[in-house]
Amino acid sequence: MGFNKVRASASEACEGITSGMTLMVGGFGLCGIPENCINELVKMGVKDLTCISNNAGVDDFGLGLLLQQKQVKKMISSYVGENAEFERQMLSGELEVELIPQGTLATRCMAAGYGMPVVYTPAGVGTEVAEGKEVREFKGKKYLMEEAFDADFALVKAWKGDAMGNLVFRSTARNFNPMMAMAGKITIVEVEELVPLGALDPDHIHTPGIYVHRIFQGVNYEKRIEQRTVRQRI
Amino acid sequence: MGFNKVRASASEACEGITSGMTLMVGGFGLCGIPENCINELVKMGVKDLTCISNNAGVDDFGLGLLLQQKQVKKMISSYVGENAEFERQMLSGELEVELIPQGTLATRCMAAGYGMPVVYTPAGVGTEVAEGKEVREFKGKKYLMEEAFDADFALVKAWKGDAMGNLVFRSTARNFNPMMAMAGKITIVEVEELVPLGALDPDHIHTPGIYVHRIFQGVNYEKRIEQRTVRQRI
Amino acid sequence: MAWDKIGIAKRIAQEVQDGTYVNLGIGIPTLVANYIPEGMEVELQSENGILGMGPFPFEGEEDADLINAGKQTVTLRDGSSIFDSAMSFGMIRAQKVDLTILGAMEVSENGDIANWKVPGKMVKGMGGAMDLVASAKNIIVAMQHCDKAGNSKLLPQCSLPLTGIHCIKKVVTDLGVFDIRDGAFHLVELAPDVTLEEVVAKTEGKLVV
Amino acid sequence: MAWDKIGIAKRIAQEVQDGTYVNLGIGIPTLVANYIPEGMEVELQSENGILGMGPFPFEGEEDADLINAGKQTVTLRDGSSIFDSAMSFGMIRAQKVDLTILGAMEVSENGDIANWKVPGKMVKGMGGAMDLVASAKNIIVAMQHCDKAGNSKLLPQCSLPLTGIHCIKKVVTDLGVFDIRDGAFHLVELAPDVTLEEVVAKTEGKLVV
Hints:
The complex is a heterotetramer, with 2 copies of chain A and 2 copies of chain C. Chain A is of the alpha/beta class.
């Protein structure tokens, strides 16, 4: 048996995800999102999901696909503006939305991965984000106490990974993925390339395999660009 | 002018360190210690230093060199057992020693680098380490509140670095170095090799240069091995 | 002629210092990068995980894995580094970023800022703005002096939900440059051809000239 | 014949499960690595920043940059990873390490452990022991049943300064294997040729047989 982390497909990897669960979903915008896992969730038809993810995708890509199918009960995000269906569900009250500062989101994931029950951050002091939260002063500066996230599954996208679950991310597709990988009770990772054990330099691994429970090589990555900005060649 | 981080020598890099200051010193045992900076401190003759460092070196190497010269007023460490002069000074009361759990030490450095005023850890609950500290329960488990460290300078050893202060560590010589690099009010880094800007892959950088104030290429690395253990070729 | 967007960006670029790390928000702040004086070394931080962000890529060289906090395709300069979102906001909280430039809907005379939410309208979220304003050592707001209805955006107190409190040190608008201290907007400089009278008329918060 | 150090290590090796992450302390625990059954996949964590630690290097292949938490030169296995001390203790606190095996001076019937300090003697420090015992899901102590003076180390309560409280689940000594639960040492197994009488005589804490 051994560690037995490798799965043949998204469908094998996503086994056990059921309606009503809380999922962390990696990515920033459409960059570094677990495309295969999201597609699989659509197929599975699981509902009433709480998704912790910085953004909510666009109408026809990323978490937008789950929103189209009304599979999401609640989004916990920092910025959700790029999605008409999202807006409709939010305004109609079908979808619950908790907006939290981006750094707080990142740090609450990190706290879970580092075994810290809470963290203090100044973000949101004096704003409506502070409502109901403990405010505490250290060295003359006020901080909010924020709790570590608690997610049933984390869905993560990495560039390369090995059978032990060691992960390497590519460029800004890293974003929230390493922290979410560390934070999930069960962490499922899809990689563009599953490499042989020993192929990754131990010094270059961003996420040690101990955090990863299941890993598979994804297929058909679209890697859609949300804002294509270019400069002219002179 | 620009960022102007590169220094020609340890002596230029250590400018401004004065008696009575608090220094973080990277390394675990004799592995990954800032040899050049330590030698420079001996030359400078600064005294009454408070050193935050996991260990205290051996009699004739590492921080032991500062102890020999009685330059250290206080050590904040997790394990200090390998040094006869240390033992003598500690038992005679010349040297103040604060022993704290290794993970607490690492995390208090990290807290400083991450702008967290305090962190909670279960390490030491119910022991003498908890004396005088806030104990708080989260989800049925007790934690100690531990403060971020506050150091005037951090002395760090990396393998490679560039003029922007980006750092790459090699193997377990990484240990406390990245957290201390992030935590120092002024961070001084010595590297085995100062490489041209652009030579380091941005995805492989362990410590982004924003944390590093001064960097220089060290000389004459001894890299002493504390416990040489080998197996026989069969 | 009051400043247009480019004028505001150019004026703010004068505030940027050599050898510093700067985070630029979406909109006018992004333009500031184009007007940083030649020969000055400034590293741009993007809170999704970049230090040393470069210009947009040449057409055909866009990389879906390399975007900035505005989700735009960008490039990396030599000496850049990539990190995760926790470290990115860690360095922001630890005040390693020297200067943050961002837009606002309202700024108050005591340095409060509102820039994320209009009650009754679709709320997109605060993104990293609350983290940035709560932690940055030095924050400059780039915005129009008045909203589209002509109401002053420099107020005694913000009417919109706050992003952060007591944090804004300087505001650059189409009409001029204002330092915020001691509970007032201190006029530092008028934009070309803008009169003091116009600024007085259009500044609802306490103004010191 | 009671167990010698190797006997203790071999017995503990039987407790190690396939597909798990294990942290081994200095002394007898280190020996456990040698007796993990063939074909079983176990990854060793060393709290100075290794997952997938391998055996000592061949002579001449020692690398000063590659040591374990006992400061011994080691090697890396395929699939290993290196990380900093904060992440190392983060994964320990987050209970990602499945099993911790460490030595002790005293263990109490309610699972307290003392293993770092003897008042009046030179104190070397707790290293990572306090972090490990406060966080690990599963901890096995490897030690001699009695100290050199013949005093029991399985006690009603520890007399030495504590390393951690209510944390030890199992003790393997030269005399046998003991589970700790409900405020007592439960005898699981006697070492070869050790009599129940001997264990009873040498166990000062509450013993359930």
